[in-house]
Amino acid sequence: MVSAYGRRFYATKPELAAHRIEAIGYQVGHQLIERYTMERPRFNDHLEVIKFICKDFWQELFKKQIDNLKTNHKGTFVLQDNNFRWLTRISIDPSSDNNDGSQGSSSEATNLLLYFPCGIIRGALSNLGIPCAVSADSSNLPFCSFMVRIKA
Which fold has domain 2-93+104-150? Predict the structure, then answer.
């Protein structure tokens, strides 16, 4: 769905496609977190919110918890999913490998796909009162890590 949307509407402007897909994810995350925290007491600190995202929110979205959570205790969190559900069926075309080491359109499609969950995480955290920036890395499929940087 995400890659088809990007190809159809923003084929000539991939950065615009990425921004729009992330914005849609933001809206989805913003609305879903309201539903999942409706009957919970307020969170006390950032770490408690991130733990909720890793355990309960991720469980609702992807039927599993985040495999690993790392932090530097200065506002940066790394959420690692060793078998990210949306990347399990993606394969890299070996014929698209270039001599310069880039992976071509396969990695572009993977990166485009990851803007949506980045937006979901950012929208959920924003609705819980934590403004942040979220980026993703999927250098070794289906492993994926999401870096959350809380804005001061």
Answer: Muramoyl-pentapeptide Carboxypeptidase; domain 2 (3.30.1380)
